[in-house]
Amino acid sequence: MSDLPETGFNPRQFIETLGRHGHNGLLGITYRAHGPDWCELGLPYDARLVGDPETGILASGPIVTLMDMATSISIWIRSRTVRMQATLDLRVDYLRPATPGKPVIGRGECYRITRNIAFIRGQAHDGDPEDPVAHAAGTYMFL
């Protein structure tokens, strides 16, 4: 897909500029790809994000942040505009630990938008989408 959809919202540019700041910037979240209603972001492996130093497994917080950002951006892509929104409900179900040393890839999809609510789903994996680390589902409320 083109980096510049007809709306003018550019997910790659958003992550590469604004995404370098704040929480997402500290985690090193990167843009990977997008489509008409989805966005894929990456979370590089970083020893500072490890939850248990003995195992080298990433903590859950950075993965939740990755999924929150990927699903948020999917809403803006689908709605073709950036709207103020709040995470109303985001459920992340962990299926297995992320493999130590590997980046985690998060893909968020917006599958429905109403006047006030956007509905999302997604998954995180560390290289094989058929073997996910986590699934996500949730709702965002427009402000």
Summarize the structure.
By secondary structure, this protein is of the alpha+beta class.
Compile the SSE list and pairings:
Layout (H helix, E strand, L loop, with lengths): L10 H7 L4 H6 L2 E5 L3 E6 L6 E3 L4 E2 L1 H20 L5 E10 L9 E10 L3 E9 L8 E9 L1
Antiparallel strand pairs: 1-2, 2-6, 3-4, 5-8, 6-7, 7-8
Q: What general outline do the C-alpha atoms trace?
A: globular
* Termini gap: 29 Å
**Which class best fits the helix and strand makeup?**
alpha+beta
**Number of domains in the coordinates?**
1
Instruction: Tally the beta strands.
Output: 8
What's the Cα radius of gyration? Answer: 15 Å
Instruction: Give average pLDDT, whole number.
Output: 92
How many distinct helices? Answer: 3
Strand content: 35-45%
CATH class: Alpha Beta
> Which H/E pattern describes the elements?
HHEEEEHEEEE
Largest sheet: 6 strands, antiparallel
What's the architecture, going by CATH? Roll
The residue fraction in helices comes out at 10-25%
Please list the strands of the largest sheet in the order they lie side by side: 1-2-6-7-8-5
Output the CATH homologous superfamily: Hotdog Thioesterase
Low-confidence stretches: 1-5
The name of the CATH topology is: Thiol Ester Dehydrase, Chain A
**Assembly state:** single chain
